[in-house]
Amino acid sequence: MGTTTTLTASDGHTLSAYMAGAPDAPRALVVMQEIFGVNHHIRAVCDGFAADGYRVVAPALFDRAERDVELAYDAQGVQTGLRLRAAIPADRTLLDVVAAADALGGGKVGIIGYCWGGTVAWMAAAQTSAFAAAIGWYGGGIAAQNALVPRCPVQLHFGETDGSIPLSDIAAIRAAHPDVEILTYPNAGHGFGCSERDSFNAAATQLARIRSLAFLGRHL
């Protein structure tokens, strides 16, 4: 089990964050939330990586618009999450992401994000120098930012039946970034890695997690 801490971004904004893992863990990882906040699922993800030997932190990105946000996986939660996301400029979000990386101390730091967080991880890989490796799971906004050039190795995971990320988007990302490892999963929809969502796919989640840990192990 982790603890809640407070981070300070370079512009002076303070935000809460969930931190897990031993302070002397050999690897460091920033976990990026979905549009549902740093909720039970994201905390569980952090605890899982901590059990794998990572020092982990998940910054509460919504704190710039509204604090203590934990949304349910339903239509209202989606609407609220989208509204909060739209209220925060992307460059301010990246300041919070870098603050999270800084909180993990020196050495190499990785980043992994889910849903909105997958897109944020992509942006952080290209627009900051804070990370040695980046992973995105079903980042729906990546194709729209296909012109970004990552500064570190990137691995992306997509479900082949994701109604919000068409296969044509995945193909466009692959064509523009041949050095990015892009992995797809049959019969997997959006949010396939969250056991609290109807789209959960246990087999795809297990394989994507194994691949993610192997990727992080190679680069951190």
Automatic annotation (TrEMBL):
Listed Pfam families: DLH
Keywords assigned: Hydrolase
Molecular function terms, GO-annotated: hydrolase activity
Sequence ranges assigned to domain Dienelactone hydrolase in this UniProt record: 16-219
Name the UniProt record assigns to this protein: Dienelactone hydrolase family protein
Species of origin: Gluconacetobacter tumulisoli
